Structures are given as structure tokens and as C-alpha cells.
Amino acid sequence: MLKEQKAPATKGDISTVMTKKVFPIATQVISDGQVIEKNLEKLNLDKDWLNKRLQQVGVQSSQNVFFAEVQQDGSLYVDSKDNLLH
Description:
86 residues; 3 helices
């Protein structure tokens, strides 16, 4: 038998690591600096929410963003035009 620290992980072991899904799929909200308001509305989010999240990662304007999407767990993935990933 393997020692406990060497045994393979079970579903019970990793269930605490799995993230909770807030949205069914990841959804694009900015494309080449343009906010996709239709997609924000589908997620029941608004521009104020988006702007606050952008400021949290150091992006001052959506015009500086090449691509952004809301992940299933509710977080925001941002790829800025200067190629810094947040």
C-alpha cells in the first residue's frame, strides 16, 4: 500500500479545488477595444462592473484591451493591447 501522501487523489480530495460555475460558458465582453454590451446584458452585468474589474487589474480603459471575457467562475480574463495578460 502507498503512504497517504503518495496515494492518488480521489474525487473527494479534489472537490474543494474545483471552482464554482457562476456562468454556463465563458463569454467575450471586449473585442479590440469595443465593449460587447449585448453579452454583458446576457450575463446580467453592466459597464460599471466591467470598468471596476478592468481597474483592478491596472487597465484604465476598455480601449486598451484587445480581448476580455468573463470566465465561468465570474472572473474576468483580460488581454491588453500591449500584450500584458491579467
